[in-house]
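Q: Could you fold this chain for me?
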Amino acid sequence: MATNDLFLGTVDMRCEANNTEHHTIGIDTGRLLVRRGQEFRLNVALQHRALLKGEDQLAVLLDTGPAPSEADGTRIKVLNSRVKWDRWTFSLQSTPGHVHLAVHSPPSACIGHYKIHLIFSPNAGQSIQQITAGDFHLLFNPWCQEDAVYLPDEDLREEYILNENGLLYHGSHANIYPLQWNFGQFEKDVIDICFQILDNSLSALKNPLVDALRRNDPIYISRIVTAMVNANDDKGVLLGRWDGNYSDGIAPTRWTGSLPILRLWSSSGAEKVRYGQCWVFAGVACTVLRCLGIPSRCVTNYFSAHDTDGNLKVDQYYSSEDYSRMPSKRKDMVWNYHSWLESWMTRSDLPPGYDGWQVLDPTPQEKSDGIFCCGPCPVKAIKEGHVDVKYDAVFIFAEVNADVVYWLVNKDGSKKELGVKQHQVGKLIITKSAYTDKREDITHDYKYPEGSTKEREVYSKTGMKIKSANTQLKDLKISIKHAPPILGSDFDVYFSVANHGFMDKDVHLTLSATTITYNGVILMEFSKRSTTFMSKAATVHKEVLRLKYKDYGEHLSEHNLIRLTAMLKSKGTSDVSLTECNVALNLPQLALKVVGEPILYRKLMVQIKFANPLPITLTGGIFSVEGTGLTDLQEIKSPAAAIRPGHEVVVNVFFTPSKTGLRKLMVDFDSNRLRDVKGSVNIIVRRA
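A: Sure. Below is the predicted structure, expressed as structure tokens.
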């Protein structure tokens, strides 16, 4: 075709206008990012003459997938129709010098990368002209009522899709402390990394075409993401480690957000990033799913069971000689806390009643269909005890409902059941509120009130509830109390033995304190004491155990957790009572101060102060600073090589804000003996 015969000119993808309407403007203004089930518009310049109605024909083709083909459905001929069917359609309007196209995607379209081709068939037998108009990414659409991820509440969409900052939770159920997390799902490069993750999945590498055609299903996508965020079976993002040895990588407590992890994985050619633990896996998965358009939130479950064999019980063993905890042969554990995430979607693969929040757990614990992934599983199925529902309902049900069975092991290997605790697991399940920075208790979504009639019905439905041998001491109750302890301090723990009976009892009490990891591994028993006394009827006997930093400090994990155990045995009987309590030591907070006025594209300074709360000198101090729209990850060494007890260090960090609005700067401080010290500050950035 001669140059003067060309009719189609430049194509304006109207990126800024379309992205604003599709809630993707925060990602980019220079490329087209749209959501399925929603119209987007293009302007096509015409050369030489206007479009002749009824004579000239304009066709629209879309290519997606690894090798586009009409036969397999990855080359799509878009219908010219004003009726928005469940197929790709377009309508056009002609004005002098331009054709305005309105393209509508079906709400069940496959997410991914598309190329748009325009084919112009002019009248009078002139040659057909075909051009590539441009390309775009298509995402899930929680604003579209027909989309499987539709979320009807605007406040919830604002939080679970658009909010780039969030809170994860650590500590213990009695002493919860929040961890600021930068999801950063709207950073410009994250969307490309998310699709890179999908393209590196086992399913995509095995059969790229089938994978591309299944990307219309949030169930499929979410399951792929939980498999790919951990690197156990595939080219996944994160390698998990729980033994405290992170010398060949980065300690999980150092991370303050998902962005450095995703970027490191992508830039290294899909090399696994070292290291993650449960909240890091959950935070990264939440970033990916929010970016792709699936509403998601992070959840923390306190006293979370890891049941390895699906019998809904966790066995804990104690030595009959010194009452110390023994390792479980089946590696059943009760984690002090465990983080996963929930994603919102309909479950077209299940009978009615299972739509809504679905549990997804990217932390590699047990295999599902041969690989380390977990979910999606309806939260409603967990609450009702429907453990036969896809996916992994038995494992998730155990995480929040398993029984803990305590055993006393004799020297000859024989064992005696001490009792069953039916209400220890799933003490508290929380997430960040969608409306404030406070936490929301969602325990009731997972289980009926402990001990209620309905809760008993659910357990009988599973058919696997354990009956207690009931060897607990009657009338004698042990309680443990302590003030909120600060890391670095000495503190007292008060043990009370209350005799609610009418008879005096001669008893032997063993008290112990051990350091543990957050997933329940015992590190070191650093304090222990035994005493024998007469427990008088209708009285309370108290014992005090003083815990000193010089005894526990060097044995702490980076999670700063101590487990207190009280074992009570009545003389003349074989009955034993056991009570445990996990203590999360309070960490200091970094002090952050903004110096100057936060203006877009203008250099800004934030001052960070840290005071050493420990009675020992700290070395190897490093500050990690990060904030979406403020700065990529910066690492700053402490100006003092050795920070003596009580001494303060001050560092100044400089950056240039790249996005307006409310932003959050997050800082982490790590050293040789003190990790996971956090601080954050809200910064409102405005235009000059």
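A (continued): The chain has four domains: 3-139, 164-460, 476-584, 591-685.
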